[in-house]
Protein 1
Amino acid sequence: MLKKLFRQKLFKFILGGGVSAIINLLLISLIIDKLGFDTPTLRNIANVISIEISLLASFFIYRIWVWPGGSWTLQEVLWRQIPLYHLSAGTSVIARIFLLFPLLDWLKIHYAINTLVCVLLSTSLNYLISDRFVFKTPLQQTQEPTLFPPEIYYPEGLAPALENSSSYSRKVPQSEKSREIKLFSILIPAHNEEGCIVETVESITQLLEKEGIDYEIIIVNDNSCDRTEELLQKLSSQTSKVRYINNYFPNGFGFAIRCGLENFQGDAVAIVMADSSDSPENIVDYYYLLQEGYDCVFGSRFIKGSKVVDYPTHKLFINRLANLFIQIIFALKLNDTTNAFKAYHREVIQGIYPLLSHHFNLTVEIPLKAIVRGYSYKIIPITWQNRKAGVSKLKIKEMGSRYLFIVLYIWLEKHFSMGDYVRKQTQTTILK
């Protein structure tokens, strides 16, 4: 395992940063204690000097050990790479101090965990900027065969997720292209949704009937205390394709989804919100892509071709930061992991157990586990609009630490499980 880690650039980058930090501490101690820089002004000067020297030390560590090769001309190193490296390091520090720490503190994350997460994210940001802009080596200078045109450079840390940015897809293994979905399940969790559940169900059923898709709609009534259950009884009495069950777990979005996943009968399932925010047309898109053989289909509201209507500004800001964090630490192309509206083959659901999330963090746990465990997927643009009736159940402050727990838990699985949970037959699949 250690040999494998020492071959990875990200690990080398983190180790090099640790060496740089030690150099910083030794230098400031030497300057203050040995050279007598012992006034407030001199101590600050000592701090600046030690930071600058440690930055230069880390630059050359990375240049020699992490990103070897390339041009060593004075013009390249002194006038391009070193200034850009200072900009990269400064950007990561500023993001950590003025953006990440205050945000996580507002979400009431413990300061120790907050600090660790900020260090991880700012280090990852520094790594990505350094890899893409500072130590960039054109592919045509290498002798190794490549799948990419020589004029295109992909960051080493993100290459597995960026090999084709136009189709947003992951290659479907030939052996899986013939799987047929005879019954498509639509899973809808509902908690106090009397104002919109009927419209949501009817709009879905009308379109699926028009498309000739054999389906079932399973609605999980999550301990509603309004007329939701009464309306569900009427809907289920009108057609055998719509049925509802009462959540037998404790109250919570994640528990409601888990209840539905234990009871759906189809060959594949799409998780759809009860508030009509998700487009029925995209459900049909999901169905046909699953028919092509993809294990999962992930909708994104934030790629070319997508449409978002009336997203609350404060939630949008936090959403983009949270998804950026997930993108960076997992090196993903998917930029909307937190959205629940996704579809999965039955075998994916069976392959991602056990599920741990009780609440909205399940929306992150399911797709990340599917990706980490090697299932194929396709990302497509979708349409989303804010609910017209009822109240959103997502409480951002309450969910911050829960999202963080799940993300770090799956990150640990990815890096330390030694592939125990990865499907052996799909380990070599690539994006296409």
Note: The radius of gyration is 25 Å.
Protein 2
Amino acid sequence: MKRSATLVFTIVIALSAAPAHADVVTDWNQTALEVLKAGNIAGNPWSRAMAMVHVAMSDAINSVQGRYMRYVAAAPTAPNASPEAAAAAAARQILLHVVPAQRTKIDEAYTESLSRIPDGPAKSDGITLGEQVAALVQADRATDATNVPDTYRPITTPGVWVPTQPPLFPQYAQAKPWGLKTPSEFRPGPPPALTSAVYARDYNETKDFGGSKSTTRTQAQSDAVRFWTQSNFGPAWNDAARQLSAAKGLAQADNARVFALLSMAIADTFILDWDAKFYYNFWRPVTAIRNGDIDGNDATERDASWTPFNATPMHPEYPSQASIQAGAAAAILESVFGTGHAALTATDTVDPRLQRQYTSIAQMVEEQRMVRIWGGIHFRNTLEISDQMGRRIAAYLLANSLKPVR
């Protein structure tokens, strides 16, 4: 018994003295977030880049280990290669392609990754494999019609927006999603009629809670609105995935798959959202509330001077990208980590001192949705429908992409 206790103590000491590193997937997830932030990449181009990085790493690792199906089936296999070297080389090549100005930061991370892999044929073969896989992913997405900055111009009615160029909507209507068939595949039905009780309910809730001078919204709700800016949505879900992965101790191929599916789902939320937004072109609360006297609904009282607490995004209200994204991300993560208690921390991408704490994935989803009402830029029905859209996207990807090899 004494000898066993001594052995356990020795193992604990050895482990605690070892350098603290996540696995190659979560290391490069963090690197990708930092590189894209430094390169000022946001919105749809950001989600596309993250999907390319993680799909390339998943394909590279599974070209060695063969545990899950690959996104690019034509990728070569190399069972004797180092999966770590393959993943690092794949991630590096994608990031250099997307943000070449950040080469120094990318290569520093690459050198660090390779330093932890013994020299030899496995390492060199892994590097070659990773570069080949990355090139295939780049070629697959070269004409995907999704790498477009989100730019719009206002038209005559305040709060209603249209694309700067007419081709933008047709382009997204023909864009290539990740693992889905078309951008309109899960397009929802129309928003509620302006004369409906549902619309009146949502109108008055957002008017009451979301105004810049609201006395109903609490300080805690206001703090949540300030935190959940567009720049925190995607990174927060990646942070949550790293925390959940570390707590569960996922194996390398499992990590590669969950981060690839998460990134694919988030990228698809942008594509499907733009398709539906410009199909319906539904007005934002700021326009609706200032024109409550012309909507044909006696239960919606006009307030010509109403302004939202949050800045109104420059695109239509229905559906909500934030809520689609939250639903999709949650469904992907819950499929792997379950729906029980989970200690999660979301950290602001601009000021790391600002953090939000959650005890479950569901709690994080709910707050990310509700801030759109508290901020005065969305209606409740939109958020509910959008959450369902996101979960349908996730379910389709889980059933059809990166499945276990039987």
Note: The chain has two domains: 20-141, 153-400.
